[in-house]
Amino acid sequence: MTRARQDRLLAALVRDGEWATAATLADSLGVTPRSIRSYVTALNARVPAGTAIESGPQGYRAGPEAGAALRSAGESGTPRDRLHTLVRLLLDSEDGIDVYDTAEQLHVSSATVEADLARVRGLLGGTELTLERSAQRARLLGTETAQRRLLSRLAHDEMDAGSFDLDALRRTLGEESVGARAFGPFKSELVAELGALGYFVNEIGITDVVMHIAIAADRVSRDRGLDEPSVAVQPGQREVADIIVRLAEQHLDVRLGTGDAAHLSTLVLTRIVAPGARPGDRARSPLDPEVESAVRDVVTGAAAEFLVDIAHEDFILRLALHVQNLRQRAREQAWSRNPLTRSLKSTYPMIFEVGVYIANGLQERLGIPLLDDEIAYIAMHVGGRLERSRRADQLLTATIVCPGYYELHELLRSSVARSLGQAIEVVGVETRVDPDWASVDTDLVLTTIDPAASVGDRGDRIVRIQPFLTDADIDRVQQAAGRVRRSRRLGRLRAELERYFDPSAFRRGLDGMDAEAVIRMLGGMLVEQGVIDEDYVERTIERERLSSTAFTDALAVPHALGMTASRTAIAIGIAEPSMAWGEGRVQVVALVAFSENDREAFQTVFEQFVEVFSERESVQRIVRRGTDFTAFLDELVAVVDG
């Protein structure tokens, strides 16, 4: 547990890239500041020649060698390393292992090995493997496919703290396995040859495929290849299989059999999406009418539920192709990891929520159980569609104030459009030396002269620039535009929040409660007010089981799919110290019940509320000072107002 917390601490510092105090980090991990200091010492010890975590007056931040520390295998005797070694021994021996001999080999007691075997049993859920004991011998029973699934789980466990790492994979498979160096050329040639066949390769997915190829190569080298495929290999699949077999022999010195070739080609094809392929191209698989119909209905429902512009034919087609591959992966339990899941969830909670809604609909229609990583892929499709359909009126408007002198103002307008055209739209140019500042009502004013003293508190939208635009001018305008957008967003949030909060739906102190108990407690407050019924509470728990609503390291926003509340309301729970929620920990729980009449407000409240609680300092201020409802609301409003 200690090493896992060390990894979580370092991963959080790497992700944020900012200074953080020991107290703040302790809250997020649910430990004491003293523990944080000991974790920092241990993490720096992983890289004796460098610094994993820097210390200073402001606290701690990730150092230059943070990545190396995350990838470090640590001491060979750590529980995780010993567990992985034990699993490899079980997988490599058909006759099983002797507990006492294994204890001697690992330089631990037999009681420690017995405890590790109990942990092995905990890893076997969903793998179709069983651990058999007969006196002092232990043996894994199950198919080769199930054993590889367990290896895949161990490899992902090694890489949880960082990105895809072939050295970590080699630690999982054993130091005598195929070296990581061989996979660079292998992957490059695989991607190139797939591209020549007309496929668009998903780089996020292909790295996961490389992991499965590495596992297959290792198992085949131990005479543990897969049986012949039970179904006929399709022509398109045969092309991909031939490429994999040839490249494996060339780069990995392994001859894959028919069963492995068919299995790996299926994995490759289900991780390749060719949305731009024309009907009839060989890179495009025939679209199953059942999948297309389900996707069309679910997307139409999501567009209406969240008022988002995604019900387009090209989006439905692309997502249907993805879901068709997803269904095939689900049948083989070959889930695809997504390293962007966490950042998508915290940065684009609204988009992720649409992904959850679509995933839930697909699960009901097609029976596909979806994990967070797979939901994140759907959310990426949603985000891509919304980005393409973003309206021009989301640009900030600007007026240029530049006293006329020949064509100077026109040159400046052209420079602004060229350098800042994606952020702002110039809708007017004032060439007078004494413009009527009060009449200029655009979001920003870009001026080459000092504004009049009468401008007053509206001066925060005025940016002083040079007649000939400089890089420093561009930076200042972009920063001002960011401030205006944030102020506008959070201003809407403040107006909404003051309507939805209620003093009687506030609870401080969630000690000893788990996520479901907190949901029932906060939901019960809203039930008493007549805002929701018990069914809404149950649906909120069901939504939580689909995907954790801990959208940041500090905030969970449990809610039901479907806006069925009699009115919109928010119940707040404060946890100090932090409490476990999903795979992380949170300090604030906001159970949100939306009514159908407030459908348009959903995006504002959801995204901006999460944005406020993504800032560590703001969270600590609200949690520590929000001792009762009035103080909590005052601090929240103060943070929103900046």
Layout of SSEs?
Layout: H1 2-16, H2 22-29, H3 33-45, E1 53-56, E2 59-62, H4 66-71, H5 79-92, E3 97-98, H6 99-106, H7 110-123, E4 130-134, E5 137-141, H8 144-159, H9 166-173, H10 183-196, H11 203-221, H12 235-252, H13 258-269, H14 289-306, H15 313-331, H16 341-347, H17 349-366, H18 372-388, E6 396-401, H19 408-420, E7 424-430, E8 444-447, E9 462-464, H20 471-500, E10 501-508, H21 515-528, H22 534-546, E11 555-556, E12 569-581, E13 584-593, H23 601-612, H24 616-625, H25 629-641
Parallel strand pairs: 6-7, 6-8, 8-9, 10-12, 11-13
Antiparallel strand pairs: 1-2, 3-5, 4-5, 12-13
Helix pairs in contact: 1-3, 2-3, 5-7, 6-7, 8-9, 8-11, 10-12, 11-13, 12-13, 14-15, 14-17, 15-18, 16-17, 17-18, 20-23, 20-25, 21-22, 24-25
Organism: Microbacterium awajiense
Protein name: BglG family transcription antiterminator
Keywords: Repeat
Low-confidence stretches: 275-284
CATH architecture of the domain at 492-641: 3-Layer(aba) Sandwich
Number of strands: 13
How are the strands of the biggest sheet laid out side by side? 7-6-8-9
Biggest sheet statistics: 4 strands, parallel
Computed CA radius of gyration, to the nearest angstrom: 28 Å
Keywords: Repeat
InterPro entries: BglG_antiterminators, PRD, PRD_sf, PTrfase/Anion_transptr, PTS_EIIA_type-2_dom, WH-like_DNA-bd_sf
Pfam families: PRD, PTS_EIIA_2
Domain PRD: 286-392
Characterization of this structure:
Strands 7-6-8-9 form a 4-stranded parallel beta sheet, with helices on one face. A 4-stranded mixed beta sheet has the order 10-12-13-11. The chain starts with a helix and ends with a helix. It is about 55% helix and about 10% strand. The chain contains 25 helices and 13 strands. The protein has helices at about 1-15, 20-30, 35-45, 65-70, 80-90, 100-105, 110-125, 145-160, 165-175, 185-195, 205-220, 235-250, 260-270, 290-305, 315-330, 340-345, 350-365, 370-390, 410-420, 470-500, 515-530, 535-545, 600-610, 615-625, 630-640; strands spanning about 55, 60, 95-100, 130-135, 135-140, 395-400, 425-430, 445, 460-465, 500-510, 555, 570-580, 585-595. Among the domains are: about 1-70, Orthogonal Bundle (Arc Repressor Mutant, subunit A); about 290-390, PTS-regulatory domain, PRD (Orthogonal Bundle); about 395-470, Rossmann fold (3-Layer(aba) Sandwich), CATH 3.40.50; about 490-640, Mannitol-specific EII, Chain A. With about 650 residues, it is of the alpha/beta class.
